[in-house]
Amino acid sequence: MSSNTISVGARRLLEESVPGKPELPKPELPEIPSLPKVELPKPEFPEIPKPDLLNVSELPKPELPVVPEFPRVSELPKPELPKAPEVPKTPELPKLDLPKVPEVPKLELPKVPELSKPELPNNLRFNPLINLYHTKFDF
Predict the structure, then answer these.
(1) Which residues does the annotated region (Disordered) include (predicted)?
(2) Which of 9, 52, 62, 82 has the greatest CB tally within 10 Å of its CB?
(3) Phi, psi of 59 (to 5 degrees)
(4) What tens digit of pLDDT does each residue of 86-99 get?
């Protein structure tokens, strides 16, 4: 049953009056007396004088500082780099004359004749229904 079917059935049960039980009258609530409105006095704030603001147009324009002119990069002389000390040349070592290593002949492995595959008996052939890990031949 779905939840909608259950809720419709429950609503019908609640709406129908149960036979043999009289409906209870709704209780009347006594009237609550209204409270008088209390007016609070408004607080008095002292008057604060407004500051005199100057008009923006009356303010003097600030003077920009004078930036000194620097010579351009192409006009600057190039600095001289110190010379790196010369590295002495490494002495050449004489070449060693090593005797030649004789070549080792390749060994030929003897050929093994191919053997035919032995046939398994019927009770040892692969059967997917038999669990190979748990057989009667476990040691």
Answers:
(1) 1-56, 73-99
(2) 9
(3) -70, 140
(4) 888 888 888 888 88
